[in-house]
Batch of 2 targets.
Target 1
Amino acid sequence: TVQFGLRGMGVAPAGVEKDLTGHHHLVIDSAPFGSDNPEALSEALPADENHIHYGGGQTEAMVELAPGTHTLQLVLGDWSHTPHDTPIMSEVITITVE
C-alpha cells in the first residue's frame, strides 16, 4: 500500500479545474522529474506502466511490483495531468520488494 501525502493544497479529480488542487501520479522506475528533467514538467504526464494516474483523487493505492529494487516518486498534476508551474513532487525513494 502506498499512501500519498500533500500539504498546503487539496486533492481534486482529473478534469476538475480548481485553484490549489491537483491529483497524484506515481512514477515507478522511470527518470525522476525535477531540475535535471525540466521538459517533463511542462507537459501532461504520460499514462503507462511507469506513470500511474490517480485521477479519481485517490490518496492511497495498492501497487504490485516484481521482486527487486524499485524507485518511486509522486508528482501532483493539475486538472489536465500537467505538473503545476511550481512543481509539487516528492523526492525519489528506493524500495526493495522481496
Target 2
Amino acid sequence: MNFKKIHHIAIICSDYDQSKDFYVNKLGFEIKQEIYRKERDSYKLDLALNGEYVIELFSFPDAPARPSYPEAQGLRHLAFEVEDIEESVNLLTEKGIETEEIRIDPYTHKRFTFFEDPDGLPIEMYESM
C-alpha cells in the first residue's frame, strides 16, 4: 500500500439541517458542494477544512442509530489539531457547545478534550503546541 493521506470521512446524520449548521456555522467547515439525490431522498454535503476536502455529510431517511461512545466498536472518534486548546474550548462554549475538561495525554504530554456533534459523534481537539 502507498497511502498518502486520509481522503475524507463520511458521516450519516439524523437531522441534516442541524448537522449542517453544526459543522458549517459552529465549527467553521467550508461547503465545497451540496447535492440532493432525489432517488435516495438524501443530501450529500462535501465539507473542507482549510481548503482541503475532509468530510462527507449524508442524510438518509430512517437511518438506524449507531453506538458512538468512544469504547464502542468501529470508528472511535474524529480528532482535529488546534494550536490553542483553551481558545478553541472558549469558542465552542460561546457557540453553546459543551466540552469535557481539558486533559493531558500521559504519553505525549499534549492537552486534549472531547465534544460531540448533534448525533453524539465524539470529536477530539488535540493541541499541537
